[in-house]
Amino acid sequence: MTGPMRRISIGIVVLGLAAAVAAWFLSAPKQIGAADLPAGKGDPERGATLFAIGGCVSCHAPEGAKGTDKLVLAGGRAFKTEFGTFYAPNISPDPDAGIGRWEPVDFVNAMKYGTSPDGGHFYPAFPYTSYARMQVEDLLDLWAYLTVLPASDRANRPHDIGFPFSIRRAVGFWKLLYLAPEPVVPVGEDLERGRYLVEGPGHCGECHTPRSPIGGPDLARWLGGGPNPDGPGTIPNLTPGGETISGWSEADIAEYLKSGFTPDFDTAGGSMADVVENTSQLDDDDRLAIARYLKALPAVGAAE
């Protein structure tokens, strides 16, 4: 090899190594330390309200569970997507099968950064893109509530995901595109509570916002409805540009979230029935705050 060719070859190798090192750091999971948390252990009573709006039961309780059995968050539900099948994990306080050995900071890192206690990426089937907008104090309250729920020793089932989606480190690049704590829609102070509930703990955008080819939320069509992300059918448009609730008043929406009855006396069905069961536990002010935020959304028309 001649001198110039050798220098070019060395340059290519150096650039390749530099790119690999940069990619490794860019895709690294983010997390905070325990010293970064506010003082206090969290209030389980306040956490119960966040548990309701977060709908933790809907994904993590065993399918078909009734009554207090719904509080046993043993996981196991399957969510079929175009990227593979994800299985909800056990998030009960069991020290081996569940999250009983986690510290509060582990929970905050999972919810805000999608990072596991061992420093790996969680897949975004876990809706941390929404929970990233939650206040740390609220997360600690929710954590306090989870620790007093019944434990289950049901083992987690591994996700069924093929290559290349099985490469967890690549989730770091996905997060660079889609994980941000900022609110989606700018609103006045009077609508901030509703925005927080919808965009954060309520994670309504996870189902009601269409997704890009790589599974990221299309914020330009925020809450504009689209294909069901984990099954057949479509999810309704919640904006004033849709046909489902655009004609409803704020009071109509609040009543639906409380009783499940629409203005024409139809009832919530499918997965929305579970959501209503959760929102029925909120107080009237929070349900009205959600309704006011939805009525103030930018209109999103039918998808082309």
How would you characterize this protein structure?
Helices cover 38% and strands 4% of the residues. The chain has 304 residues and is mainly alpha-helical. A hairpin with a 6-residue loop joins strand 3 and strand 4. The longest helix has 24 residues, at 3-26. It is globular, with a radius of gyration of 21 Å. It starts with a helix and ends in a 9-residue tail after the last helix. The relative contact order is 0.13. The model has no long low-confidence stretch (mean pLDDT 91).
Provide the fold topology:
Elements (H helix, E strand, L loop, with lengths): L2 H24 L17 H11 L1 H5 L17 E4 L2 E4 L16 H10 L14 H4 L4 H11 L24 H8 L13 H8 L5 H4 L17 E2 L6 E2 L14 H10 L11 H9 L4 H12 L9
Antiparallel strand pairs: 1-2, 3-4
Helix pairs in contact: 2-6, 4-6, 8-12, 10-11, 10-12
GO molecular function, one term: heme binding
Pfam families: Cytochrom_C (PF00034)
Protein name: Cytochrome c
Short account of what is shown:
This protein is mainly alpha-helical and 304 residues long. The chain has helices spanning 3-26, 44-54, 56-60, 104-113, 128-131, 136-146, 171-178, 192-199, 205-208, 250-259, 271-279, 284-295; strands spanning 78-81, 84-87, 226-227, 234-235.
